[in-house]
Amino acid sequence: MRLSLPSDSVCWTRLVCTVLLAVLTAAPAAAQSSGDGSFYSRYGIGMLETFSSPQSEALGQGAFALRTTNYNPSANPALWADQVFTRATGSIRVNVINAQSPSGESAVLGAGSLEALQISFPIYTSRLGVGLVLQPYSTSNYEVFRQGTVDIGVGDVTEASYETAYEGRGGLYLFRSGLGGRITNNVRVGATVDVIFGSVKNTIRTRFPNITAATLSPSVSTVQTRVSGVTSTLGSQFSFFDVLQENDILGIGASVTLPANLTGDRVRTLDESLDADTVAVSKGDLSIPYEIKAGVAYHMGERWKFVADGVYAPWSTFDATFGSDAPSLGRFPIGGEGTMNDRWRVSTGSEFIPAGDDRFQSYFARTGYRLGTYVEQQYTTSDPGTNVYVMGATGGLSLPTAVPGTRVDLTFHVGTRGATQSNLIRDVFYGGSLAISIGERWFQKPKLR
Question: Residue 19: pLDDT above 70?
Fold first, then answer.
């Protein structure tokens, strides 16, 4: 299916191509969207990924202060201090998007992706732990089609119909490694080294269905941006015992990811053949803002857990430069002027395990049941000066297995993004994920009798 989009919603930084294409994008047109990702992944560095652990994914994608020995959460490295097992987690996700335009047209898009690969292990059990994480940082995956006419003034032909397709593929990855340690029974801290790397490729294809190639030939312009850089995340968690009743725990946690400067190059080519012409190359950098995550968690014995969390990052300060040596590429934010907003997010969630920590109860009594909700102001928009809000609900089951320390997690999500007004697109999305967390005792010396 095709989705009509507002003609002025195309970010001009995606339209770096020939002079002819610049004329085309200024002409009246009806745009169409397909592919298998959100239309909003066209802007900035793509859609930001928020995975921390299978547990946090079902609790509104928060749980930044929730201590656990069954998972290796990556959002707050201080939580790695509680590791007892060497633990490996792998998670995959399926997402379906129903995108709707202001004119009422819609398109259904679907895709699967990797959520994360995580491993953690204790150096000193429940005192000092190491964590390693590889996961997507952002994803760009879209196709937008535009149709219209343009004045050309070639011979007897004064006007030509055109069809232009804008495509984006790629994204950035995050590799995180660090330590989490327990200072006292109440205080945990952690720190990581984060490497962000990847590339985004944007392609513009234009053809003229009613004009011969000799008069006006089709054109293909591709811009590929590759960047990498290093930053760091600092985290802390404070626990208070017997606050409201006996055997309860109140946790407060926070983490700060420092600003990052990603450097790399941008290459623009024409045509898609093996001898495609490279018309411009520039060096440059991206400035990723700092990000603050904070939350509270309440353990009501071993059966109930409640969390509330928040995220803030000043993405309005984002900038990207790709040197004066390539004037045709210029100096500009990737997302276009005015398409960046400060990002904030608020979430809540709860978990219930009927059996608590009693391993001799029935299977369903040992299963964890989770629900969560969240609201977010997205960091990008297709319409300068307009905010895009995301609202969603999450849920999931944590299934015990016959192997001690190993759990299988099923997580579900549903929500909306944007609105069919103010030149925006409205996404209704839903999907689920499957994660397996395997825990075993490694590196232990045998005891002599």
Answer: no
Separation between Cα atoms, residue 40 and residue 28, nearest integer Å: 21
Q: Tell me the C-alpha to C-alpha distance, in Å, between residue 350 and each of 69, 168, 394, 415.
A: 17, 37, 10, 18
Rounded Cα distance between 386 and 384, Å, is 6
Q: Does the residue 448 lie in any domain?
A: no
Identify whether 255 is part of a domain.
yes
User: Beta strand pairing status for 142-154 and 187-207?
Assistant: unpaired
Nearest CA to 433 among 54, 83, 146?
A: 54
Structure confidence by residue, pLDDT tens digits, 81-101: 999 999 999 999 999 998 887
Determine, yes or no, domain membership for 446: no
Average pLDDT on 261-280 reads 78
- Residues belonging to the chain: 449
Q: Which tokens hold the place of 331? A: 């100096």
Predicted TM-score (pTM) of this structure: 0.85
Q: pLDDT tens-digit profile of 105-141?
A: 777 777 788 899 999 999 999 999 999 999 999 998 8
CATH of the domain at 361: 2.40.160.60
pLDDT at 6 over 80: no
Residue with tokens 């011979």: 155
Helix locations, 54-182, DSSP H: 54-58
Q: 247-263: string of b/e by CB count within 10 Å (b at 16+)?
A: eebbbebbbebeebebe
Task: Give Rg (Cα) of the chain.
Answer: 25
Choose between 78 and 25: higher pLDDT.
78
| Residue spans of beta strands (DSSP E) within 66-156 | 86-100, 106-124, 128-139, 142-154
Which residues, including other chains, have CB under 8 Å from residue 196's CB and lie 6 or more apart?
Answer: 137, 172, 173, 174, 227, 228, 229, 230, 231, 260, 262, 288
- Calculate what percentage of the chain has a pLDDT beyond 90: 51
Distance CA(245)–CA(242), nearest Å, equals 5
User: Domain span at residue 314?
Assistant: 7-440
Instruction: Kindly write down the DSSP assignment for every residue of 187-252, as one continuous string.
Output: EEEEEEEEEEEEEEEEEEEEE-TTS-TTTS--EEEEEEEEEEEEEEEEEEEEEEESSSSTT-EEEE
pLDDT of 330 reads 35
Rounded to whole angstroms, the Cα distance separating 366 from 357 reads 8
